[in-house]
Each structure stands twice: as structure tokens, then as C-alpha cells.
Write a structure and sequence with these properties.
Largest sheet: none
Strand content: under 5%
CATH architecture of the largest domain: Up-down Bundle
Mean pLDDT: 84
Structural class: mainly alpha
Helix content: over 70%
Shape: globular
CATH superfamily of the largest domain: MFS general substrate transporter like domains
Number of helices: 16
CATH topology of the largest domain: Growth Hormone, Chain: A
Length: about 400
């Protein structure tokens, strides 16, 4: 893509809005996790039905993401982002007053549509407004914002859950004032006009930029590994008689904090290394961390493994986003970015579907060991491809 933008991020408007908006896809599910048990007991729902309230938005998000990308490519970021934030706020906040379970699920599906526009709009908005070292720096900040959101929003949901299971739904209303702010964003610089046929669907997009398939595969693998840790680390700790929820939460919080630190240091690393090298380091650190989670029974080592995993994630998130932007064809950055979200959701869903039955049939050790094998295999492929050139 040929876009001329200033490289000094201090003079770019809307940065805070776009970074806050980047945390909203994390907020989407995490703010409700503390009240899942309340939904079961107070609404008399099954665990599956309660869990759907937290996760079902991902279905519509993944399905609508390519359409959201096409809209952003055609109309720019400002208006689609504002519409997405408004729908995010209204549909998400509807849980404060909705009574009937089917209606609540319907609002969550609409909420996923808004979340798709928010993810695509904020990501493309940042990519369109920055170039060179400024873009590397901002992508690192985005990674940090996302990881901090993973710590802050569950705490907010837990604090509001003391009042009522409905109270955390009010947090989604944040999307409404953010939508008004998004309308005040200046028109972003756009790519050169796409060639004929560039407005076709995802198959045409991937035909024009086949390198994106590798990026999406890496995104799916990274998300699968992330959710392996999120889902099965508490099980691993329980096997060591570590069941205190505050202690268990400290492991995931430490991982998120490490991701934040890596995000802040991403620009400095990117100044010396290419994205493929950073991804190689990410998958290598994940291999070591997952092996430790599988084989070691010392709690402090498991904590160190969680921190190491977070460091790798802090490198992978901005690297994969930048690779997507760089490999997107002219006029297709929005669709390319949206498909990155679809790939991530695919990995999220695949993690429990693939590793859950393995855990049930064997043990949590073998579950982490299998994840380590996957991470190691990807790292070996990346190492085999070379590309050790410094930037």
C-alpha cells in the first residue's frame, strides 16, 4: 500500500481513542466472566447456557469480520468505527434490562457485529495513521493496551458483579460516548485506488496476497496456544493444590503484565529485527514455557513460565498485525485485518475443541506437552525459513 503519513506519533489525533477502542474486544467477554456463576444460580441457567452469554458474540464477530473489513476499505475508518462503537454500546448494554434469555442471546449476537467493526476500525485506523518507526511504536502500545485490558476489565466486572449480575453489562455503554468521539476523527489518509476486481471477496483477496495465509495460520496457532494457557493453567495449578482464586488470578495477571512490558519494548526490538525473527522468538519462548507447564511441579517455575508466555505474546500481537498490513494488497487493508480477527477466533474455538478431549482422555500434563509440540513445530518451520536479516 502507498500511504503517506507523518511518522511523529505525538502529532497524530485520536491515538487515545484508538488505543482504548483496541481494548474493547478484550472487554467483550472478560468483563462478564466474574458473574458466570451468578448467571447459573440467579437465572437458573446451565453452565453451557451461561457460558454462551459470554462467548456467543464471537460467532457473529468471526462471521461479519470480512464484511466489516470491506466496509472500512470502501468508506474509511471514521464512520464504520463510530457505527460499530454505537452498536457495541447499545447492544452490549442491553443486558442491563433484558429479561428473556433468547433476547439476551440475540443482543449478544448484535454486539458481536459491533465488536467486528470496532476491531477492524481501530486496527486499520492505527495502521493508516502511522508509518515506519512510529507505526512499530504504536503497535507496541496497542499490544500493551490489549494486555492491560485483560487485567483491568475482569476486575471491573468482578467489582460490579457484587451489585448484580446485570451491573457488568453497563460497562459496554462506554461504546456510546466513544462513538461520538470517533465521529470527530479527521479523515485518515487512504491507500491508492485499488485495481479492477480488488473489491471482490476474500478468495480474490488471498489470491492477490497469498502470503496472508501464512500470517493467518500463525495467528490461529498463537491464539490456540494462548487459550490453552488460559483454560488449562488453573487445572494444572489445582493438581498442585493451588486453588485459591486470588493466587490463580495472579498467574494470568503476571502473564498479562509481561505482555505489556514486551509491547512497550516492541519498537526497540523492531528497529533491529524483522517480524519473522520476532515471531520465531515468540514461538520458541512459548515452547519453553509450555514444556515447563507440562513437566515442572514447582509453583515459582510455573509462574515464570506464565511470564515467559506473556513476553512472547507481547511480541507476536504487534508483529502479526504489522505483517498483515504489509502484505495486504492496495485497497484491501480493512479486509485483510478483519480476516486476522477471524483467524484469531478460529484458534480460540479450536483450543478447547482439540485439547479438551485430549485432557479428558489423558492428563493436563500431556495437554500442555501437546501444545508445546505444536509451538515447537511452528518455531522449527520459522527457523527453517531463515530470514535472520536485521531490519
Amino acid at each position: 500500500m502507498t500511504v503517506t503519513v507523518p511518522t511523529d506519533s505525538r502529532h497524530q489525533p485520536g491515538l487515545a481513542l484508538l488505543l482504548i477502542g483496541s481494548t474493547l474486544t478484550v472487554l467483550a467477554g472478560t468483563v462478564l466472566t466474574p458473574v458466570v456463576q451468578l448467571l447459573i444460580t440467579e437465572r437458573h441457567l446451565s453452565a453451557t447456557a451461561a457460558g454462551l452469554i459470554v462467548t456467543v458474540h464471537g460467532v457473529s464477530l468471526a462471521a461479519v469480520a470480512p464484511v466489516a473489513g470491506r466496509i472500512v476499505d470502501r468508506h474509511g475508518v471514521r464512520r464504520p468505527l463510530a457505527a460499530g462503537l454505537l452498536l457495541y454500546g447499545v447492544a452490549g448494554g442491553a443486558g442491563v434490562v433484558v429479561e428473556a434469555y433468547p433476547v439476551l442471546i440475540a443482543t449478544r449476537l448484535l454486539f458481536g457485529v459491533g465488536a467486528a467493526l470496532v476491531f477492524t476500525g481501530t486496527t486499520v485506523g492505527l495502521l493508516d495513521r502511522y508509518a515506519g518507526t512510529a507505526r512499530d511504536r504504536v503497535m507496541g502500545w496497542r499490544s500493551t493496551a490489549i494486555s492491560l485490558g485483560g487485567v483491568v476489565w475482569p476486575l471491573v466486572g468482578g467489582a460490579l458483579g457484587v451489585l448484580s449480575w446485570r451491573a457488568p453489562f453497563a460497562v459496554y455503554l462506554l461504546g456510546v460516548p466513544l462513538a461520538l468521539l470517533a465521529l470527530r476523527l479527521p479523515d485518515e489518509p487512504r491507500a491508492a485506488a485499488p485495481p479492477p476486481g480488488a473489491t471482490a471477496g476474500r478468495s480474490a483477496l488471498l489470491a492477490r496476497a497469498p502470503g496472508l495465509l501464512a500470517v493467518y495460520a500463525l495467528q490461529a496457532a498463537a491464539t490456540l496456544l494462548l487459550y490453552t494457557v488460559l483454560v488449562f493453567l488453573p487445572v494444572r495449578l489445582a493438581a498442585l493444590d493451588i486453588a485459591n482464586t486470588a493466587v490463580v488470578a495472579s498467574f494470568s495477571a503476571s502473564s498479562s503484565a509481561a505482555m505489556s512490558v514486551a509491547g512497550l519494548g516492541y519498537a526497540g526490538l523492531r528497529a533491529r529485527l524483522t517480524e519473522p525473527v520476532l515471531l520465531r522468538w515468540a514461538f520458541t519462548t512459548w515452547t519453553v514455557a509450555l514444556l515447563a507447564l507440562a513437566l515442572v511441579d514447582v509453583p515459582v517455575v510455573l509462574l515464570a513460565a506464565a511470564v515467559l508466555f506473556g513476553l512472547g505474546m507481547g511480541l507476536a500481537v504487534p508483529a502479526l498485525t504489522v505483517l498483515t498490513a504489509d502484505r495486504a494488497p492496495a485497497g484491501g487493508r480493512g479486509r485483510a485485518t478483519a480476516l486476522l480477527a477471524t483467524a484469531g477466533f478460529t484458534g480460540q474455538v479450536a483450543s478447547p475443541l482439540l485439547l479438551g478431549p485430549l485432557h479428558a482422555a489423558t492428563s493436563v500434563r500431556l495437554t500442555f506437552l501437546s501444545a508445546a509440540v505444536l509451538a515447537g513445530a511452528v518455531a522449527a518451520v520459522l527457523i527453517g525459513r531463515g530470514d535472520t536479516r536485521p531490519r
